[in-house]
From TrEMBL:
This is FAD-dependent monooxygenase. The keyword Oxidoreductase applies. It holds the Pfam family FAD_binding_3. Keywords: Monooxygenase, Oxidoreductase.
Length: 344
């Protein structure tokens, strides 16, 4: 019987597992993929993420960075061609290497890391949760508390609540070439002609990365090629070759930023709980919610009278400032573009 099982070794899961292992809890961290695993992401760490990481995990190693190492901020262009420039130094990382570093730190702190292992479902019993896991075979493990950090597509959540989710699909390509846009910034375009959510450009090592967010997967290539033509006419993009493309998902954020925090002995953190900031910045909320979940777990273990109700209530209190921050951020974005006015 584990004290806690954490499902998913992204930023939310690694933060939860690391903090609990540091406090000597018996923690199992299961990750569906073999680490380092690919994760479709622009890999920009804002200052808030960097502070959270460096406080908990130590200095971010040079080996996980890509060029340009420093991301100078974000430039948002709305449908009226108005631009909003937010300058703030962040870091540009490869998510596969960065997340591997986080997972190994959680493991060194004492969490048992089980890779290539998928959680299939969770069943809550009187004093524990039984989790069906799948590696080369299907078997069960038990833990007194589960923190599900299995991302936007959370299987744990779908199994528990059986409700369909609201997603944004992302499609991005990695190309070699040239463009007249500042590589030190992340560029987001909110014109509805270019995407159903946002369209973006950023640079990682030698790659020019072009992406679009859409609601209907069948339209992804159409919007992507429209975005490309737009960049061609406005910013003189010249492509020599395209090396790879990738599809990702994010939670579709709704007005008021509703969260799914969990039920009984099962908490959700990160994107599994719907944490996401504007234009896809989600690592800082994943870390913050993972931190809040770990603290809630510690607090129920510390009381003699283990109360499931107090687990979720404490977690709710812990993440309230993050929810308020997220709501403020979306309101600011709604003021920049009519596309997001429903978030006001
Ligand atoms: C295209 C794109 C660009 C983005 N760019 C940025 C950016 O520049 N900066 C930023 O801050 N955020 C960015 N984000 C958002 C960011 O990637 C997420 O918000 C963040 O990764 C969420 O962290 P998480 O730990 O909740 O989930 P994830 O990072 O998704 O981690 C979930 C983990 O759970 C594992 N898993 C899933 N199912 C199971 C299962 N059943 N059993 C076991 N393990 C499982 C997955 O393999 C994965 O490792 C971007 C997102 C997208 C799609």
């Amino acid at each position: 019987m584990y004290d806690v099982m954490v499902i998913g070794a992204g930023p939310a899961g690694c933060m939860t597992a690391k903090r609990l292992a540091d406090a000597d809890y018996n923690v199992l961290l299961v990750e569906r993929m073999k680490i380092p695993r690919e994760k479709s992401c622009s890999g920009i760490l804002i200052k808030k993420s960097i502070n959270l990481i460096e406080n908990e995990f130590g200095k971010i190693p040079h080996s996980v960075l890509c060029k340009p190492h420093i991301s100078k901020g974000i430039i948002i262009t709305n449908e009226k061609n108005q631009t909003f420039k937010f300058e703030s130094d962040g870091l540009n990382v490869w998510r596969s290497l960065f997340d591997e570093w986080l997972a190994l730190k959680a493991q060194s702190a004492g969490a048992e890391l089980r890779q290539s292992t998928s959680a299939l479902s969770c069943k809550e019993k009187h004093d524990h949760v039984s989790v069906k896991l799948h590696d080369s075979e299907i078997y069960e493990e038990r833990a007194r508390i589960i923190v599900a950090c299995d991302g936007a597509g959370s299987i744990v959540k779908r199994n528990l609540f059986k409700k369909s989710k609201n997603y944004v699909f992302t499609y991005q390509t990695f190309c070699k070439g040239t463009i007249d846009l500042d590589p030190d910034f992340f560029h987001a375009f909110l014109d509805p002609q270019l995407s159903q959510y946002d369209a973006w450009f950023n640079v990682k090592d030698d790659f020019l990365i072009f992406g679009v967010g859409i609601k209907e997967p069948s339209t992804m290539k159409m919007y992507h090629s429209r975005f490309f033509s737009f960049l061609n006419s406005k910013f003189n993009v010249k492509i020599e070759s395209c090396v790879k493309d990738e599809v990702g998902i994010m939670p579709g954020v709704m007005p008021g930023c509703p969260l799914d925090l969990g039920t009984g002995r099962i908490l959700f953190a990160g994107e599994a709980a719907n944490f996401l900031n504007p234009i896809g910045e989600g690592i800082s909320s994943a870390l913050t919610s993972g931190y809040g979940a770990a603290e809630a777990v510690k607090s129920v273990y510390k009381t003699n009278n283990f109360s499931v109700k107090s687990l979720i209530n404490t977690y709710k209190c812990n993440i309230l400032p993050e929810k308020e921050y997220m709501t403020r951020q979306w309101t600011i974005l709604a003021g920049m573009s009519s596309k997001f006015s429903y978030m006001k």
